[in-house]
Known about the structure:
This protein has about 260 residues and is α/β, with parallel strands linked by helices. It has a single domain (about 5-250), classed as Rossmann fold (3-Layer(aba) Sandwich). It is about 45% helix and about 15% strand. The protein is built from eight helices and seven strands; from the N terminus they run βαβαβαβαβαβαααβ. It has helices spanning about 20-30, 45-55, 70-85, 110-135, 160-180, 195-205, 210-215, 225-235; strands spanning about 10-15, 35-40, 60-65, 90-95, 140-145, 185-190, 245-250. A seven-stranded parallel beta sheet has the order 3-2-1-4-5-6-7, with helices on both faces. Strand 4, helix 4 (about 110-135) and strand 5 form a beta-alpha-beta unit. Helix 3 (about 70-85) runs parallel beside helix 4. The chain is globular.
Amino acid sequence: xxxxxxxxxxxxxxxxxxxxxxxxxxxxxxxxxxxxxxxxxxxxxxxxxxxxxxxxxxxxxxxxxxxxxxxxxxxxxxxxxxxxxxxxxxxxxxxxxxxxxxxxxxxxxxxxxxxxxxxxxxxxxxxxxxxxxxxxxxxxxxxxxxxxxxxxxxxxxxxxxxxxxxxxxxxxxxxxxxxxxxxxxxxxxxxxxxxxxxxxxxxxxxxxxxxxxxxxxxxxxxxxxxxxxxxxxxxxxxxxxxxxxxxxxxxxxxxx
Length: 256
């Protein structure tokens, strides 16, 4: 497929959590599909290496070191996109944080606060700055990363479940508020996906993956690229009448 006919040809896209996992996969997918990508995450070396990889292939990419819990840093990342490319057309708000599986009554307040700060307030902060840039450009598309834990309760992960359910509500509220102004807002809800968070869980509980497979009609772990492909479609004009949707990319986990 030529860049001119690609899914995101000519679009400018901001991707958070872009230094690894689903975010890094999205950087590669979005850029290959024709978008100029602005990559945001905390780890500068990983961002720089990924930008070098993409630009070495003739793709358009830059980065902005960003902690999504810092409103000022989020504002700078959005401004970096507008300053460099003149507008912002799409955003994949993917930065997230998970913690070890702990019963609710044993969870430390600091852990709860950190999960909510990154997974919920971080998404809100991103949208708060992305939306004005998209309104100035005449519209756009936002995709937020929720989780199957945003659709059903998963064991001993109450703060994570709370944060991801809240992302669903925030997505629907924004879709309702800005649809008439040309901004679509959707969410993806990944199931078990090969990511740093899953690797950390498996290091502690190696049995978890097999148990999740047993509960999934497609009994396997997704590649990050499979989630990224869904986000790219939702950001594209081919999803032009889709807003307020939460797309499970979970191998059927949530149908059980």
